[in-house]
Amino acid sequence: MINFSKVIPICLLAMAVGVGQKASAQGTYPQKPIKVVIGFSAGGGTDAVLRILASGMAKNLKVPVVVENRPGANGNIANQDVAHAQCDGYTLVYNTSSMVLSPYQYKDLAYDFRKDLKPIVLANNFPLLLAAKLDLPVQNVQELAQYLRDHPGSVNYASAGLGNITHLGMIQLLEKIGAQASHVPYRGEAPAMTDLMGGHVDIYMGTSAGMLPLVNDKRVKGMAVTSRSRMSQAPSLPTLAETLMPGTEIGAWSGFMAPACISEKILAKLNKAINEVLEDPEIRANLTAQGAEPRGSTVQEYADFIQSEYERWGKAFKAAGIKPE
């Protein structure tokens, strides 16, 4: 006959151990590899920067951090996948500033970043660099502004695509200085840079990572950068903030986000871990070598920054007359 007086305490003990193990597992996150999804191809600048960060995260969190490339739809495929992923903190997305531009470009997005994704930390910023073709008769950004005002509509500028940050940045500049210029959109940055070097377009505000080598090799004229302060890689180039657009910073920024249902405890741990990675001198040097400006933030600071950028670029889309399709 079964002695229930002995069985029940044993069962209760087993249940207690199980609950304790579950609580321990939850309290010791992470216990398995973390996947970070990125919406761009392997080998690009954004991918290279993420892999630097992922190596630091793996060392800090003591689990593998695996980068998964899901390119397409301006990063929206990756954002959408993570928005609908499990809430356990093992699937994150390395989002870029294209995320806040997409609602103004696409009608039928399958996710809402304001509801379906939770900010973790702002990681990097890629400043833009304004340059002119070699034979444009200007020597600095002030002369360029005056030339644009003196030749309304006769100067053209390249962008890496309609609604791209390289397009919107120029819209803001032209509006600020009270000038007009003709827009020539390209399919990506490479052909825009090629035509600037060839003199087929007059000016281009491209990513610093792509433009710095052209300026340093004197294949184009560097006018200004869009960072908060002068870039260490090009200290002679002034910022737009110190010349034509006080207080303005324009960049292609990036950071980490998780499904909105992630627990606050795991969110806080990830924020702390990634901020520590961003403070590491070796990591910072490697990021700077890629043309990035390492940042770091609290969860709330990143949330506020994302919202401010969403509102800011919405005004630029309206000014450009661009509507979602």
Layout of secondary structure:
Layout: H1 4-27, E1 34-38, H2 45-61, E2 65-69, H3 76-83, E3 91-96, H4 98-101, H5 113-116, E4 117-132, H6 141-150, E5 156-159, H7 165-177, E6 182-185, H8 189-197, E7 203-207, H9 208-216, E8 221-225, H10 240-243, E9 251-259, H11 264-279, H12 281-289, E10 293-294, H13 299-320
Parallel strand pairs: 1-2, 1-3, 5-6, 5-7
Antiparallel strand pairs: 3-9, 4-7, 4-8, 4-9, 4-10
Describe this structure in words.
With 325 residues, the protein is of the alpha/beta class. It has two domains: 33-125 and 251-320, 3-Layer(aba) Sandwich (D-Maltodextrin-Binding Protein, domain 2); 127-243, Periplasmic binding protein-like II (D-Maltodextrin-Binding Protein, domain 2), CATH 3.40.190.10. It contains 13 helices and ten strands. The protein has helices spanning 4-27, 45-61, 76-83, 98-101, 113-116, 141-150, 165-177, 189-197, 208-216, 240-243, 264-279, 281-289, 299-320, and strands spanning 34-38, 65-69, 91-96, 117-132, 156-159, 182-185, 203-207, 221-225, 251-259, 293-294. Strands 1, 2, 3, 4, 5, 6, 7, 8, 9 and 10 form a ten-stranded mixed beta sheet that branches. Helix 2 (45-61) crosses helix 11. It is globular and about 65 Å long. Residues 7-26 have low confidence and may be disordered.
